[in-house]
Design goal:
Blueprint lengths: L3 H21 L1 H5 L2 H20 L3 H25 L4 H14 L2 H4 L7 H14 L17 H14 L10 H18 L2 H21 L4 H25 L9 H17 L1
Length: 263
């Protein structure tokens, strides 16, 4: 691992490269906050993919891409005279110190849960902090992640189930209501009840310390692997999926599951 001096030097080198590219590269020269935003979103998702796979080599690579974007936005801010990368770092350090009084002050927090509870209270007291408990949840978050964050923030101020096992009655209640609306063939109310049901399942996952986004992505990847197996074997058999019966596809699906279990 590198020394602190080497890390500072490497960060300075990245800033030097960006400064030069901003002047000499036609593409970099024309970028704005607005034009970079879609690329930033893509880079963050690529980092998420690497994190899900626990792929150290690609985590390092994708972190570099995200860091480059942070530095690029800071350079644009510098050009506008609004802020530079030093301001970004200093403000973040100040915020972390202020939000960790159990480390930098006299407050006692003996568990991660207590730290989170303190964190929410501190953010409400900050001059430029959140005006309400839920205002800190970005509107642009994907719905599944947003639901988890909403529930988690409510929990940090005491709005939660007394006993986590009680949530299952709510899950069953929401499922019954969804089925009832589906039987009535009321699409609008069915959509509303589906949302309530999904929200309750996410709540259950949170209460049992499971990450529903990670869980769903694992299932997505599992389905992709198994479906690819079915498709590849249908090609080998010279029979397109569109010409296979459901029973034939189910047979290949079970083979795919056995192959995964054996590995």
């Amino acid at each position: 691992m590198h020394s602190r001096e080497e890390k500072i030097e490497a960060f300075g080198r990245l800033l030097d490269v960006l400064d030069r590219l901003r002047v000499e590269c036609p593409w970099d020269r024309k970028q704005t906050n607005e034009s970079l935003r879609p690329n930033t979103i893509e880079e963050v998702f690529e980092l998420c993919d690497a994190l899900m796979k626990d792929d150290s080599k690609n985590i390092c690579k994708e972190l570099g891409d995200v860091l480059m974007h942070v530095c690029f936005y800071s350079l644009i801010g510098q050009e506008k005279g609004d802020f530079d990368v030093a301001d970004v770092c200093q403000k973040q350090a100040d915020k972390l110190i202020f939000r960790h009084p159990h480390v930098y002050g006299e407050v006692v927090a003996e568990s991660a849960e207590k730290v989170l509870q303190n964190w929410e209270q501190i953010k409400l007291r900050e001059k430029d902090g959140n005006k309400t408990v839920l205002s800190g949840v970005p509107q642009a978050l994907p719905s599944l992640i947003k639901a988890y964050r909403i529930q988690d923030k409510a929990r940090n101020v005491g709005f939660d189930w007394d006993k986590r096992e009680d949530v299952w009655a709510k899950v069953r209640e929401e499922l019954d209501e969804l089925q009832a609306e589906l039987e009535r063939d009321d699409k609008e109310r069915s959509t509303a009840e589906l949302g309530d049901f999904l929200f309750s399942v996410i709540n259950a996952a949170r209460l049992y310390h499971l990450n529903p986004d990670n869980a769903l992505e694992q299932t997505n990847q599992k389905f992709i692997r198994r479906f690819n197996y079915v498709e590849q074997h249908s090609i080998r058999e010279g029979k397109p999926l569109t010409e296979m019966t459901l029973a034939e596809m189910d047979k290949l699906w079970e083979e795919a599951k056995k192959t995964e279990n054996n590995n």
